[in-house]
Amino acid sequence: MKISARARYGVRLMMVLARNYGKGPIYLKDIAKEEEISEKYLGQIVIPLRGAGLVLSSRGSHGGYMLAREPSEISLRQIVDILEGDCLVRCIKDPSTCSRVTTCASRDIWMLLGGKISETLGSVSLAELNNIDHEKAEIHGRGSAVKRVKSKA
Amino acid sequence: MKISARARYGVRLMMVLARNYGKGPIYLKDIAKEEEISEKYLGQIVIPLRGAGLVLSSRGSHGGYMLAREPSEISLRQIVDILEGDCLVRCIKDPSTCSRVTTCASRDIWMLLGGKISETLGSVSLAELNNIDHEKAEIHGRGSAVKRVKSKA
DNA sequence: CTGATTTACTACTAAAATAGTAGTATTAAT
DNA sequence: ATTAATACTACTATTTTAGTAGTAAATCAG
Predict the structure, then answer these.
(1) Dihedrals φ, ψ of B59, to 5°?
(2) What is the CATH number of domain A5-149?
């Protein structure tokens, strides 16, 4: 039971966009460089986030990505749900895959657990996440994200 | 983010043993038949459960498996922890695998989530799980487990 | 003792999922 | 036009998963 790189990378991508909210579009290249993630792979990850309306994009030489709404209005749950396609057990989404559904108690428990996970992820917004990040950065002395690395200046 | 068949099967195996607690050892063959799981595969799954002291085994012609303690004293968390080797993200168990550990906020969230999952699984015992099961069985009319299928009689 | 039956252990394997890479097309500013 | 960004599609190496197969060891009945 682990979280895919896809979802983890997606969250980090969104955190960078959240830090730069209101500053216009950010290049994927810069995010990839800062977060040390393959740009091509990030390019695949951002597509469904855009498709779900969490991210806006613009193409061309001054293109890039930005959040579609405030960081406080985007929860981790939304991001993870989009990127982590599969649920805990298949029979939750699709009960027809198992004939034991009506009598299976363990299924009930996996559903309960799935609910708890959603609840937990739903209770954390990108804004809160970046607050944690900022506190840690103050202690350990890290710069303020993209700006420092940005290729233009 | 899904639960492996290994862990799911392990939970079902333990539920059968819980239903038959106090009745002496149960054959893996019967459990496999009842739960419609490969006996050989179950044989692999039960080993670590025995190793962790949750299950007792005896070999030979009247061998089998039984719980090492009362169903109310065994939580889902124990079972899942034993069978689901990996944690949510590798950097939790082994911080040295990532250089960003000190400044990474997302890691904090995955740890929080991991805690919630443990908490949830820890709050459910095999006894409680079988109560749910029994309620469902009464509604949908299923027999009382192994006995019905048992190969000897 | 012997044979039947069970667990214990080890090695192997087909299929699926994961985490990418690569290349091309499209869009937009200079 | 050229450049520089996103958009899209296809492919692939590696790892993980979910088993299968076969042998060894223990235990009980007769």
Answers:
(1) -95, 180
(2) 1.10.10.10
